[in-house]
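quick q for whoever's on today - can somebody do inverse folding on this one?? i tried earlier but teh output was garbage lol. tokens:
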């Protein structure tokens, strides 16, 4: 057993981390989950070639998922499709991570039509406002996008989104974000200046907002685009009020969760922790009759 475990560590650990992220941050038992799926597929079925049966079911699931992604109305045609993921079954689209240590985790999935429409609008807003090198709004239309449900932020903390469905304990989807109120609401971008420095040139200080992460998107540069892949968190932002007289830091969001101040706001995941626009810390949330209260519990 010791020799077998040593073999796994030496020969397989690097490949696993490249495909699934840091082992220390992985509590999903994804190998065991895949084995259980394989067992449930061949259970109570007589076959001489179980591997062909598994391949057949994977291809059928992939085809149906892609069909639903292209034609969302088909979801209502068959009861068994009501809860089927829209998007191809994808085991081979791991995110390699960026220079800041941020890595989108899990298998990337194709976006359904509704998510693609939301992501297109959010990423175009991101490109228009912050001008990432090599990107234009036309590139967004031609780009392939993959959806991820959680991320390793700068190699320090796991951040989940509302699309994460495998939690075995309580997780938080709420993270403190920086929002340049005046600059964002101008409606016009500052051409030729990249990133939050554009707002900083107007001497504007970012305001803390609570971000509820909906999902993560990786945008792959299409042909003719000289930029790098974009990693964006699609979030709902809520205006905060700091509660006075508390021993610890406590925020109050009066409109949470029903009325976000800014819906589907794109937050750049590929920026340094010292950047003024970087995500800060996760928060635990408690609902009340007047919105929700938030307290930080993990620093990013």
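ok took a stab at it. sequence:
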């Amino acid at each position: 057993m010791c020799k077998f475990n040593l073999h796994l560590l030496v020969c397989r650990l690097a490949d696993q981390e490249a495909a699934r992220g840091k082992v220390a941050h992985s509590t999903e038992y994804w190998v065991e989950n895949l084995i259980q799926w394989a067992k449930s597929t061949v259970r109570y079925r007589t076959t001489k070639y179980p591997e062909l049966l598994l391949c057949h079911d994977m291809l059928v699931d992939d085809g149906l998922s892609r069909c639903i992604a292209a034609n969302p109305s088909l979801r209502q045609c068959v009861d068994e499709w009501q809860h089927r993921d829209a998007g191809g079954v994808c085991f081979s689209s791991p995110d390699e991570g960026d220079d800041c240590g941020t890595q989108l985790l899990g298998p990337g999935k194709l976006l359904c039509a509704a998510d693609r429409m939301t992501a297109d609008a959010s990423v175009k807003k991101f490109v228009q406002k912050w001008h990432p090198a090599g990107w234009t709004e036309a590139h967004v239309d031609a780009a392939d996008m993959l959806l991820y449900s959680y991320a390793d932020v700068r190699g320090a903390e796991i951040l989940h989104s509302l699309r994460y469905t495998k939690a075995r304990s309580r997780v938080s989807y709420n993270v403190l974000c920086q929002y340049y109120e005046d600059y964002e609401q101008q409606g016009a971008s500052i051409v030729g200046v990249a990133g939050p420095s554009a707002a900083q040139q107007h001497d504007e200080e970012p305001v803390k907002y609570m971000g509820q992460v909906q999902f993560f998107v990786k945008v792959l540069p299409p042909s003719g685009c000289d930029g790098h892949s974009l990693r964006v968190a699609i979030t709902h932002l809520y205006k905060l009020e700091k509660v006075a007289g508390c021993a610890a830091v406590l925020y109050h969001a009066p409109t949470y969760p029903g009325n976000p101040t800014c819906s589907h706001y794109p937050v750049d995941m590929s920026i340094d922790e010292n950047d003024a626009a970087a995500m800060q810390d996760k928060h635990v949330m408690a609902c009340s009759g007047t919105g929700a209260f938030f307290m930080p519990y993990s620093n990013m």
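fwiw The mean pLDDT is 76. also The first strand starts at residue 103 and ends at 105. so keep that in mind when u check it
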